Amino acid sequence: MKRRVAFDIEKLDSSFAAFYRKLLGFASSATRTIRKAHANAFPPVAAWFLNDRLVNARAALDQSGYRVGLNVAVPAILHFCFNNLLRSRLYFPELGDSANETRYRDFSSGIPLRLPDHVPLLEALPGIVNVSRPLDDTRAAGAVALTQIAVSFCLYHELAHIELGHVVSSRELFGAHDFLEFAARREWPTNRRRLTRVWEYEADKIASMMVAADMFSADNVEVLSDAFDLPKSPEALTAVALSAIYVVFFLFGQRAGKDRRFASHPHPMVRFGSTIEALVNDVPRHARRDADRMRTVAMDTLFMTHGAWDDLGLPIATNLTNVSVWKWIFRGVDDLERDRRALHHHYSARAWSYPFEAGS
Length: 360
Ligand SMILES: [Zn+2]
Hints:
The protein is α+β, with helices and mostly antiparallel strands. It has 11 helices and 4 strands, in the order H-E-E-E-H-H-H-H-E-H-H-H-H-H-H. A 4-stranded mixed beta sheet has the order 1-3-2-4. Helix 6 crosses helix 11 (323-343). The protein has one domain (11-41, 53-350). Bound molecules: zinc ion. Zinc ion binds next to helix 4 and helix 6.
């Protein structure tokens, strides 16, 4: 297989290095969580940042075992997104001094999913974060907290591909060495794309449940409420977590919709439809709230995030104020669930655990 080059985060300035180390820590704490919650036999997984400018990630199995790699551009570009969103007063308006932030309209056709080629990564990574920082310290701290959640979601998504047997099955069924995100090829047959979309749907569901578990763990409630200046309510914590996840999908949603026939992932808007459902239904396991109450929080958060995204002039694939779009989103989620039930027997036996209802 092609050898991937690790990015040495220790070469970054000490505060950035510490931040990136902390992000990798999410992967190791998550493997412990999975072992405890789902699979007693979950294997060790090495996690690292890859020296790559494109927003992408992968999960792999080779001679040295399971590995999860996140391109080092991922945290920087997400941090850039949250910094800019927090420079709109529409985004978490009660946080810090939002009135003083100015809109940062410097996006010609959206936020690029690739760091510029002509700047060395060691400069580009801190650079993109520093230039976009909100004026208010509390809002800057909020961007850090949101970045952590969004990156943890990406890492959990990759770990879920291992837990659910996708990585092993991808090798057995397709001879693929790496389980690479966004690797759809034109020549892939329809049934392969149907299967990979189900895998993405499953990985999103597990990742959002793991984010929920983080949100409501005693340590994180304290840390997050402080950093984000929040009341310690399930509503506030859920709003922060969901907004972080929405932004991951908005980022990809900028360019979705042109030609979806060859895509390996469900449409980003359908992905957040399934994430909303997974998270909303999971919150009652952690806090005394019913799913309907949390669904209202989820929709309010979505419209706030969407409003700020729009305020920055950023593109999005669909008009979320249109009722028929929502019908289309939830029909997409239903289709994925139906496909999952039909297809899971092809791979669920290779899973370390399969915490979904078995289908036919
Ligand atoms: Zn994936």
